[in-house]
Amino acid sequence: MTLTSKAQVIERDFQNARSKANYAAYPEFARRYVKHNKDGIVLANAALLEMAVGEAEIAARKAQHWTFAASLDDTPEAIATSPLIQPETIQEAVEKLERVLAKGPEEHQEYAAIVLARAAFATNSPDRLQKVAHYLQNIHLPPARLPTGYNFALVACGLTMKGMAMEEEGRIAEAIVCYDNVSLLTQANPNEKGEELFSWTEHALYRAGMLKLREGDQLAATRSFRAYHSQALQWPANFRLARRATVYRYLSQGLAMSFKSLGFEDTIDGTPVIVDDQSQTHLSALRQEMAQIHAYWEDSLYAVTPFPKATEKNWRVLAMIEQIVEDRKLLGSGNDADKRALVETIYRASQKTFQSPRNLRFLFFALVDMGQFDEAELALKSYLDMAELNLKVKSATADEILTHEQRVRLDVESEYDITTVMIAGSYLYSKELGNPTGALKCAKSALDHIHQYLQQHEQVSLLLNEAYKYEGVAYSMQALNAHEPEKRPDLYAKAVESLENAIKLVPDAFDGHYLLALQLAEMRDIPKAILAVKQSLNLNASHVPSWHLLALLLSSQKEYERALSICAVGLKESDWDLAHTDGYTASQLDGEEYLALRLTQAVLHDQVHGPESALEPQEALFGLYARIFAPEPCSSGESLYDIQNVRRRDQSEVDLTLPPPVVGRPRAGSILSTRSRNGTGSDIAPNGIYSNTLDVPKPNYASSITSSIGSGNSKNRRLHPPPAAAAANHTPLLRSALSLPPAVQRPTTKSVMRTKRANKALATLWLLSASTFRRLGRMEDALKAIVEAERVDASNPDVWYQLGLLYGAQDDKETALVSFSKALALDPYHPACLARLGRSYLEAGSLEMAEGVLETTTRSLGWDSAEAWFYLGKVFEASDRLARAKECLWYALDLETSRPIRSFTESLSRL
């Protein structure tokens, strides 16, 4: 029968209302449609049955307070379903449709049968599954010829109902086929839309993925969840967000497992080394997809997660953050932008997990990885305070009873987690913050926790090794900074004891032997230190600091040629300066250690072959410096996760380009701006480059020191001191560990510290050149090198100390004393300057002043300064205290005979 135009319009509008589940409009549309189309009675009654079922389901959900938020806890074995309805609530509508079923066209009858199947499945009738099978038995799903509009949604409904019925009967494989057919239909017909279609498509895709997980087919489940996500992009923004969060949780896990299946061989700094190009491409795509899934997971979960009440724990947020953190560990931390994005993710989680120790633990490690050490310290303090409360409220046996899932739900930290944070905190205080008190407190707390709670833990030896090691480092740092001579021996003894304890626990760890050797070297126990560092090299022959320490130890025994040979061996063993063809390079910190060894090699070359031959090796150091302090690939390279292309709410894109490591600009009152009390103008051009002879290292720092030095006719020229340079002190602002980062990001503590290290390293190179020129008698060239050192690092007291030595070499004792005083203004405890100052007082006949300065020096940080003890002995000799003089002179001789070519402490890093 051909429909009139009026009936066609009504049918179109009626079907649109059905596609939107607009139940209020159903009765009127049904009345009008039957009025203009007598054969439409089946369609009209089918719609009225849909209305009755839909309204009954809504009423049942309200009565039981059920929402799709129940799906947040879904597992493959237990999938939350809507409450079933009573059969009598829809019995009348079912009977009406069954009575008129034979009166309509065959097409209407088939779609009405699907509606009847849906109605039967929604009830709690005992024979509901049999009724579903009965209604669908004569219907071919999917049909050979696909309909459009709402009828297409009914086909998806029929397939979904058939699959759900088979699922309840235990016919899982057949149910999955039905669900997959829905997925294929919707993907092949992207123009078909509608809320009812979205609803049935979501049911099918969701259940397909979960059932595949139940069957153990992870790859197939991941494909279904990917299809779910692809379809979800077309759904309304707030449509079934709880289920989306669950899908993203399992999809994230599936992608992580896919990555593990790539078969990587090794890792460098947490980034996998992939076997072939195809795997590398797959890895890149996985990283980007993972970042997108994390973003959608976060948005959907937060949309259905309120701020917790006093007795609640948003454990689902904690589980999500833990999964994201673990995924980042697996895929690699990425560049600075990626690290900052992870920190911001954890900060956002803190808004939904008030006072969560687990979230603070994640935040602490993420901030350390990002290099924001000041904020990491705040997170550490907050975490340890919460962990202490955590211990007070739980029973002694709780740690043994709770599973990992229970810990996440209760937000209770294990003793192992607390201990690892304490150990990491000790490392942070020692390595990055230079706070031995905080480092010692964390290390001792870790040791107490291990002895009290983790004696039976499988990694107890490793934990104790780390805790004892950092305890020893903390004691060593305290001794190094001690101003009370009576405390120093006890601190050194404790440091040695802790390091020896660490070695006993893990004797095959080279770093323990290295730290013990360094500690013994600082105590001037040279023979034992040599034995310890050789043991470190036996365990790790590529450890550059161990070779460096061995060279310094040999130089302390005045075996300079052997020390020079050891430097060559150590540099050969290092792989930092090798060409890398695999796309990876060694870290910048390894490069700094390499530069430090090259610097010692240059000083030894000077000692063995003379200052003239030392100029060429020193020139090469500037080129090496430029390579080492170039921007790190992990800082300025491409994002591992392509985070700029990830949809992210409230996340600003920040330019994380690091500032140049060296800032050279003239400052008022510095060596650069004034060189003579007599008004002599500077021969430095305004742009900071020498206008005559000496080139300043610029971005490539490949200056020629030997070829561009001016003639030696400046040998006897008198130089005069400039005013002191003011050292700038920039203190970063601190904020709460749980507050959101500001919109404008400041440089990380790590980047600031790197810039300072770069400036200090370049200043050291210039001062080394200045020392060489001074000993060659080329005073003007020496001054130019000092000027460049001051340009780079104005707050470095060694700049003014070298300037004082320069004037002292010209017998200008007055101006030399002024320079030493300016060095002491920057560092009141500079041992070399204090020794020179004491010598000046001694030569001037001011014995009391000399004794006061030298006594203070030898009792505090200059306890190992041979010059200070020597001049103090001379002071006692001049004042007829011969016994004291003899003690001081003998001690000075002992220190001199064990003094290395460069200071152990300044040349080597502890960690």
Automatic annotation (TrEMBL):
Biased segments, Polar residues type: 671-681
Keyword list, A-Z: TPR repeat
Annotated TPR repeat ranges: 797-830, 866-899
Protein name per the record: TPR-like protein
Function: Involved in endocytosis.
Region Disordered, residue ranges: 651-690, 705-726
Taxonomic superkingdom: Eukaryota
PROSITE patterns: TPR, TPR_REGION
SUPFAM superfamilies assigned: TPR-like
Feature: compositional bias, Low complexity: 705-714
Coiled-coil intervals: none
Presence of the UniProt keyword Cell membrane in the record: no
Family: Belongs to the YPP1 family.
Pfam family, one: TPR_1
